[in-house]
Amino acid sequence: MNRVISTSDAARISLPAARLAIAAAAATLLLLASLRVLSPEFDPSWRMVSEYAYGHYGWVLSLLFVAWGVSSWALAVALRSEAKTRPVKLGLVLLTLAGVGEAMAAVFDINHDTLHSLAGALGMLGLPIAALLISVNLGRTDPWSVAKRTLLWTANLTWVSVALLAATFVLLIATFSRVAGGLPAHAPTVLPPGVIGLVGWANRLLVVVYCVWVITVAWQAITLRGTENPARSRSERDGLLGSVSPRWRTVTHSAGGNAAGSGTPADNEAATRACTQQQGALDM
Questions:
Q1: Burial of 103 per CB tally in 10 Å (0-12, 13-18, 19+)
Q2: Domain residue spans in the chain?
Q3: Residues whose CB is less than 8 angstroms from the CB of residue 284 and which lie 6 or more positions away in sequence, other chains included
Q4: Is the pLDDT of residue 73 over 60?
Q5: Would you say 164 and 205 are in contact if contact means Cβ atoms under 8 Å apart?
Q6: Mean pLDDT in the chain?
Q7: Global pTM?
């Protein structure tokens, strides 16, 4: 069903955390692009992002993973006030764990096989589930529903990128086994002819898509936070008007009627001033 089922408390969204999420995700993308320039010896078509640890700029890769983890943590903090349903709460927990995995890769690089694999499992598998839980359920709330389509598109792209990574990895193994008769003990410098290597591009696309989702949700959170105060002011004014006693409203209406009706100019002017003062008291 596409009905809006609840409302959110956008006024409590953390603006600093949302802005940090965007900045960290953008830094992740910039660092990823810089590694292509700094370490051109790694063919991006089939070499994984983690393999930059073998080069001279492993510290840049570590910064990338730290920034990636911070982006997930910051978004989880920014959306704490929106965790009003179990799916969103679970999504924020998984988003935090994904950040742990992303940051772990900065300490346990590809040379630490077991812990690096654990980091990859937390980061690469945790975030798509978190993205779906958060995007689907926030899209059902009142202010977030205006961006429902964008939230769902970017969230679904996260698991699509995982599926694409798995498919290209299988394709690499299958074609390598067919051409060379088996997998080598160490990664070759150049792929043999006939081997289809696209897994590197799929890996980089995954990083980009994950960061795009974080930026999209954080940006929407900032937008909603910025529009929440005027709406709240109007609701508070409506509540104040609703609390005025019927007798007071009758007096105000009578004064307004006298101001617009017949009478001496002095009486009309006095009645107009009274209405203005009463309206000013309500607007405070």
A1: buried
A2: 10-231, 244-283
A3: none
A4: yes
A5: yes
A6: 83
A7: 0.77
Q: Which amino acid is at 67?
A: A
Confidence (pLDDT) at 256: 45
Report the largest interatomic distance among the alpha carbons of the chain, rounded to a whole angstrom. Answer: 107
Strand partners, 141: 6
Question: Structure tokens of 172?
Answer: 């690499």
Return d(Cα 113, Cα 232) in angstroms, integer: 52
Phi, psi for residue 4 in degrees, rounded to 5: -80, 120
DSSP the chain: -----B---GGG--HHHHHHHHHHHHHHHHHHHHHHHH-TTS-TTTS-GGGGGGSTTHHHHHHHHHHHHHHHHHHHHHTGGG--SHHHHHHHHHHHHHHHHHHHHHHS-TTSHHHHHHHHIIIIIHHHHHHHHHHHHHTTBTTGGGGHHHHHHHHHHHHHHHHHHHHHHHHHHHHHHHHHSS--SS--SSPPTT----HHHHHHHHHHHHHHHHHHHHHHHHHHHHHHHHHHHHHHHHHHHHHS-HHHHHHHHHHHHHHHSSS-HHHHHHHHHHHHHHHHHHH-
Q: Are 225 and 10 in contact (CB under 8 A)?
A: yes
The answer to whether the beta carbons of residues 112 and 71 sit under 8 Å apart is: no
**pLDDT tens digits, residue range 130-186?**
999 999 999 998 889 899 999 999 999 999 999 999 999 999 999 988 887 777 777
Burial of 198 (0-12, 13-18, 19+ CB in 10 A): middle
Is residue 87 within 8 Å of 129, Cβ to Cβ? Answer: no
CA 132 and chain centroid, separation: 11
pLDDT tens-place string over residues 13-60: 899 999 999 999 999 999 999 999 999 999 999 999 999 999 999 999
